[in-house]
Write a structure and sequence with these properties.
mainly alpha, 3 domains, two-stranded antiparallel sheet, 2 strands, 75% helix, 1% strand, globular
Length: 714
Amino acid sequence: MRLNPRDITAKVFFIIALIATFYHIYLIIHPHTPISYYYRIGILDLTQLQRATHVFFILILGYLLLYIRGGEHSLSLGLRWFIALILAVLSLIPTYLAIEWLIDNEALIPALYVLLVWFTTLALPVLEPLSRIISSMSRYASLLTAILTTLPYTYLIINYEELIYRTVIPHPWDIAMGWTITLMLFGIVLRYIGPELPILTNIFILYNIYGYMLPRPWYHPGFDIDFLVAKIYSETEGALFGIITNVSLIYIAYFTILAGVLAALGYGDILARAFFTLLGRDPASPGRVSVGLGLGMGMISGSGAADTAFIGSTMRHIFKAAGYPDLTAAGIMANAGTLAIITPPILGAAAFVMVEILNIPYTWVIIMAIVPALLYVLSILLYNEYYVRGANIRPVDVQVTRRFNIRFLIPFVPVITILSLIFQGYTVRLAVTIALIASIILALLDKELRPNIRNLPNGFVNGIRLLIPIGASITAANVIMAMVVVSGLHQKFTLALLSLLGGNLAYAIIFASVFSLILGLGVPPTATYVLSSVLTAPAIVKLAVASGIPETVALLATHMFLFYMAMLADITPPVGLSNFAIAAIYNLNPIRVGVKAALVAIPKYLYAPSIIWSYWGASILILPIALTASMQETILLVTTRLAAIIAGTWFISMANAGYYGRNKPLPLLGKILLYIFGTMLIIPSEKLNLASLILGLSLLVLLELRSRKVKTSM
């Protein structure tokens, strides 16, 4: 039997993905083996080389998958294509400078190598839609690039110590290898996520080169391309292999492997059946079960797009049977899937970045995320309830078991294992690995799951496949942060922001919210959080402290605020990966889905700004208040704040759905007033909250009395 090149490549991809899986798992046990005592192996013992190996797996597997899947990640002529064209042009500037430097140093072959990699990674994807011949060539270019990824990785492994010593005066091949691996990263992010993030990264690189052309306070002397490439590739804690990339290595890789294994073993199917027992005949059940699935899968996933795809494929026919319009159903499910990024214990990559930046225990982030996650859940559920009441959604006719089965608890075993071990002081990746082993053992013991054990290798491979776009975006975010720090832009930005805002905390919160949302229009949550935290967090913390908030509370609340706003990037149009995931299932325009998803559960955009508004506002995070106040005061602040936000969410949800009861539509003025009263309740101000609550309840009473009067007259 003759194998074609794609089949051979698929087998190679499978083998490398398995090696990558076991490499990450072995890293946990390696320090406790005799090998670590007697031998010093760079990729096992040196942090920098561990991160480099992690990035290498992402790049080689990413390009192999591009070849195997053909045109799946190809661009089509349109806005994204035009943005990708801008990326190709922008990236050509530092590429030209690198080539010029190499030619000046009489290194023609490295210069040609750099030009080749730029062409295969960034130029060909833009040319691909213009010709079928170029499209075919682009596929083979992906295979070539996959092979070429071995060069900068091998070069780094062999010359690691020498590269560090000659960072100031690099050799030509140092520059060639450093810049080509950066271009390879841009190519992966372009194909799997989009051109916006690599464009942003290139802008910061260009700022480091041409800062001398800008007026003060943005002026800086500028850096040569060889200096910047050394910072990116050669230096210890280089931009490609820094603390943000470490998040992908020691956290995200383990969670994606776990998610892949649990899916292969059938844990998701059991979870779906568990929530299907809630369906019955209630018209609101499809929305409720979607939220339940979002929470359940979010506890073991951390990927909004992946969870949205699972919920959509599971629930689509149920929503159709109930009579939900496709756009509304897609909006609800996109929000339910996005819960994965905010639901403990797995909160998406940005949460782990926060741990590294603030140097705090991950358990702190888990505790702080609980109430915001529940509020997000409430906003989706309340919208669904009031929408169903007004839209005459039909009862759901689905045959499900009505009896609770003890097997329904199986999907929660990994989550309980992870949480219990983390709170006992185990590292996150060790806790996840133990949960992974426990899940496999549990599958062996369960007669229904046991046949799925044969899918275990595929589960490992799919877990690493999930890592490719996430890990690539995290590494790109590390490059951005490094470029910001090298140029001192974060300090300049903080001073300029403080001057612009005039010491007003409210203005700072509004600015940071808009800044994060604009970034989120095209940049994934992790990069959005990294950039917003580096550029805006110092100014917000200073203003919060100046307004009377204790420094510890101000620091934690600011970063949770920025984390939450970054999370909304997953659902904010025009990009929003969750929107694209559900749009593909429904065959809808992803922009329209994004607009609908943004409108569903509107209060989600108000929770985060309220966190840093005042000391009372931060109480929904629980932990910062518990660290600075007595138990009695903490309970009082948390409960009163929570009550005000719940009331505000209730008002806004009614206004958003357009109904305040079954077949009781809200007039336009009533909608506007409930929006206003709901927003005023979410703003942390006791007097404002009390007045808004009284006015909102009074409005509902008046509407109810008018409705009864109309019915009586009829």
